[in-house]
Amino acid sequence: MRDGTLSTLSTRDRGLVWHPYAPLDGPDPYAVHSASGVTLELSASDGERFTATDAMASWWCAIHGYRHPDLDAAAHAQIDRFSHVMFGGLTHEPAVALAERLTAIAPGPMAHVFFADSGSVSVEVALKLALQFQAAVGRPERQRFLTVRGGYHGDTFAAMSVCDPVDGMHSAFPGVLARHVFAPRPPAARLVMTESGEEHWETDELALSAWTAELEALADRHQGELAAVVVEPVLQGAGGMHVYDPACLRVLREVADAYGLLLVVDEIATGFGRTGRLFASEWADTAPDIMCVGKALTSGYLTLAAVLATARVGEAITSSSYRALLHGPTFMANPLACAVANASLELVEAGWKDEVPRISRLLDEHLSPARELSRVRDVRTLGAVGVIQLDTPVDVARVTRAALRRGVWVRPFRDLVYTMPPYVCTDDDVRSIAAGIVGAVEEVHG
């Protein structure tokens, strides 16, 4: 189907608007006509129209789909009261209620919440918080962070500095980013179901042992300069959709405790049920000192993130010379975003335990045919995450178009074609997503 209006929109966009990680003269973006439930109505610049299931949940955030009546109602109700007030010297019900809800469901004894504008900003705040903590307890010389290769924590400067130094964005900004301490990427692992129905993690024990020894040696060598460990728990997202054994997170917790470091976990992509636990840290029965959440927090309605911290961290900041966490965004704790987040978390708590395992089983079953394709290196699932990894970089434009013609919107990157579908997808939706992805990969890469 052809639509001149929407193709004109793509033409007007070209060369005017920068899109993520894309040149101004790059491929034309698809224009969105409408979004409802899990369905996008799209148009290409040549006028071809597509009705597609959103396999990406809009970069992993729209877990309840589009135009959800409960979230729409929460937004309308808050607009009728007030959409924004400054948070300096003021407070409001949506923010306090959200902070109460987050501390109640978080792993471990989280006691304090700082609201930020976005995931990247929440990481910035978490890093500042760790540095302030170390200074407050008499260790101001501790100015560096220990992390692992393959990580991704956002695009702002401090967040970039703890992203992978090779595949991340360090090389584009030489001399500007702080230099931190990088351990090897944790060895890959796979979650499998035993015949008795129990979940079991499969990993290379020798590789795990070697990784642990190298991590411990690195921490020991740099102990006097490290403030915190920073890591995405169990699933590294934009760094390669890499799944690792929760035992690695336990090791990181032990190392942090042994050397007086804080453990900062970035749950921006993994939080709110995505990996099969409410928070991915729970796979390791491990509680962080500081936790960042975002993305699915408002189910994509508005940008909002949060930094949670333990009472120990809060007490150190309060007793320091500054007495405050030194950050304060203009739109901090935006009431409209907080109101929608509260409604979103009600939906999460009511349904994720049924929805995510259901999606996981379907993805595992219906992505498996991709293992027979000649260019496919690996197929893996974890919770409501399904990944097809090729042995070559993905032809993004052709795979995207091939999937759209099968009724699925995907956004591949590097050598990965993957899905993180909305939790409200029906069984048929998930089957269609998997079939569309497998079919697109087979058509383009064989």
What does this structure look like?
Helices cover 37% and strands 19% of the residues. The chain has 446 residues and is α/β, with parallel strands linked by helices. The chain folds into two domains: 9-68 and 348-445, Aspartate Aminotransferase, domain 1, CATH 3.90.1150; 85-333, Aspartate Aminotransferase, domain 2 (3-Layer(aba) Sandwich), CATH 3.40.640.10. Strands 4-14-13-12-9-5-6 form a seven-stranded mixed beta sheet, with helices on both faces. A four-stranded mixed beta sheet has the order 1-2-3-17. Strand 1 (31-36) and strand 2 form a beta hairpin. The longest helix is centred in the last third of the chain and has 33 residues, at 335-367. The radius of gyration is 22 Å and the shape is globular.
Summarize the structure.
With 446 residues, the chain is an alpha/beta fold. The chain has helices spanning 4-13, 57-60, 69-81, 93-105, 119-136, 157-161, 205-222, 246-258, 311-318, 335-367, 396-404, 427-445, and strands at residues 31-36, 39-43, 49-54, 110-116, 144-148, 181-183, 189-193, 199-203, 226-231, 235-236, 242-243, 262-266, 290-293, 305-310, 376-381, 386-390, 408-409, 416-419.
User: Which percent range describes the beta-strand content?
Assistant: 15-25%
In the CATH scheme, what's the topology name of the largest domain?
Answer: Aspartate Aminotransferase, domain 2
Distance linking N and C termini: 28 Å
- What is the mean predicted local confidence, pLDDT? 95
Number of extended strands: 18
Derived structural class: alpha/beta
Question: CATH homologous superfamily of the largest domain, by name?
Answer: Type I PLP-dependent aspartate aminotransferase-like (Major domain)
Helix content: 25-40%
In which order are the strands of the major sheet placed? 4-14-13-12-9-5-6
By DSSP (H or I, 4+ residues per run), the number of helices equals: 12
CATH top level label of the largest domain: Alpha Beta
Q: Using only CA atoms, what is the Rg?
A: 22 Å
Protein name: Adenosylmethionine-8-amino-7-oxononanoate aminotransferase
Enzyme class: transferase
Binding site for substrate: 59, 152, 295, 328, 411
Pathway: Cofactor biosynthesis; biotin biosynthesis; 7,8-diaminononanoate from 8-amino-7-oxononanoate (SAM route): step 1/1
